[in-house]
C-alpha cells in the first residue's frame, strides 16, 4: 500500500526541525497518543543532520477484532526518522522507517521538510506500507495506515500547542488571537479501505527522564 502524509506547522523550517529533534517533544507525542514504555533517542544536531528513534508499546485494541489473532495483545512500534543536512531555505530531505513488531508491518519511505507558504512549514512522508500476513495482509495494512495517520495527527496537535504557547509569549496584548499551528493531511492507496487506529505511546503522570545523550524515557 502506498501511503502519503503531510503535516503543516505554523513556523519556519529551522524551528520545525528543532521541534522534531526535541526528545521531550517527541515523548510528549508518544504519550498523547496513548502508548506506554515510551523511549526517544536523538543523535546529531537539528542545525545539521540528525536521527530520531522512538519506541513505544500499544495494546492491540486498535486492530480490528478479526485480525487480533495475528498481532497478539501488544504491539511494539519502532520508528526511525533520519534527516539530512538542510539546504537552501533550510529545506531538508530524509528517510523514515516504521516497524510494528506485533503485526508484522513495515513502512519505509522518504521524508521532506520545507517552507510551503509564508509562515508554514510542511513535513511530508511518502512510502510503502507492507504487512507480512498471509491472506489478511491488505486488511492489516489498512489498519496500520489508519494508525500511522492518527499518530501523525497527534504530532500535529502537540506541535500546535507548543507553537501556540511560543507565539502567545511573544505577542503583544493587542496583537490578536494566535492562529492554529498544526494540521495533518494524508492520502493512502491500496486494495482495502483504511481503518483507523493509533501508533504512538503512553502517559504515566510522571515527568520524563532525560539523559545527557539526548535520550528521554517515560517513567
Textual characterization of the structure:
This protein is an alpha+beta fold and 219 residues long. The protein has a single domain, classed as START domain (Alpha-D-Glucose-1,6-Bisphosphate, Chain A, domain 4), CATH 3.30.530. 26% of the residues lie in helices and 38% in strands. The protein contains four helices and ten strands; from the N terminus they run E-H-H-E-E-H-E-E-E-E-H-E-E-E. Strands 8-1-7-6-5-4-3-2-10-9 form a ten-stranded antiparallel beta sheet, with helices on one face. Helix 2 crosses helix 4. The N and C termini lie far apart (36 Å). The relative contact order is 0.26. The C terminus is likely disordered.
Itemize the secondary structure elements and their pairings:
Layout: E1 2-9, H1 13-20, H2 23-32, E2 36-44, E3 50-59, H3 68-71, E4 74-83, E5 92-100, E6 105-117, E7 120-131, H4 137-170, E8 182-189, E9 209-210, E10 215-217
Antiparallel strand pairs: 1-7, 1-8, 2-3, 2-10, 3-4, 4-5, 5-6, 6-7, 9-10
Helix pairs in contact: 2-4
Amino acid at each position: 500500500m502506498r501511503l502519503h502524509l503531510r503535516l503543516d506547522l505554523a513556523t519556519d523550517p529551522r524551528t520545525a526541525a528543532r521541534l522534531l529533534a526535541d526528545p521531550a517533544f517527541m515523548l510528549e507525542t508518544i504519550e498523547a497518543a496513548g502508548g506506554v514504555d515510551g523511549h526517544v533517542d536523538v543523535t546529531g544536531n537539528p542545525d545539521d543532520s540528525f536521527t530520531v528513534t522512538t519506541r513505544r508499546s500499544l495494546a492491540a485494541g486498535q486492530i480490528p477484532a478479526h485480525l487480533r489473532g495475528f498481532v497478539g495483545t501488544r504491539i511494539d512500534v519502532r520508528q526511525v526518522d533520519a534527516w539530512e543536512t538542510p539546504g537552501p531555505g533550510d529545506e531538508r530531505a530524509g528517510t523514515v522507517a516504521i516497524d510494528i513488531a506485533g503485526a508484522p508491518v513495515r513502512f519505509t519511505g522518504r521524508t521532506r521538510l520545507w517552507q510551503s507558504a509564508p509562515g508554514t512549514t510542511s513535513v511530508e512522508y511518502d512510502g510503502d506500507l507492507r504487512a507480512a500476513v498471509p491472506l489478511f495482509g491488505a486488511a492489516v495494512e489498512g489498519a496500520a495506515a489508519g494508525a500511522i495517520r492518527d499518530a501523525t495527527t497527534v504530532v500535529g496537535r502537540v506541535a500546535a500547542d507548543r507553537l501556540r504557547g511560543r507565539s502567545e509569549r511573544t505577542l503583544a496584548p493587542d496583537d490578536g488571537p494566535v492562529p492554529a499551528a498544526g494540521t495533518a493531511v494524508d492520502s493512502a492507496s491500496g486494495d482495502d479501505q483504511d481503518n483507523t487506529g493509533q501508533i504512538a505511546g503512553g502517559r504515566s503522570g510522571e515527568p520524563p527522564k532525560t539523559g545527557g545523550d539526548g535520550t528521554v524515557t517515560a517513567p
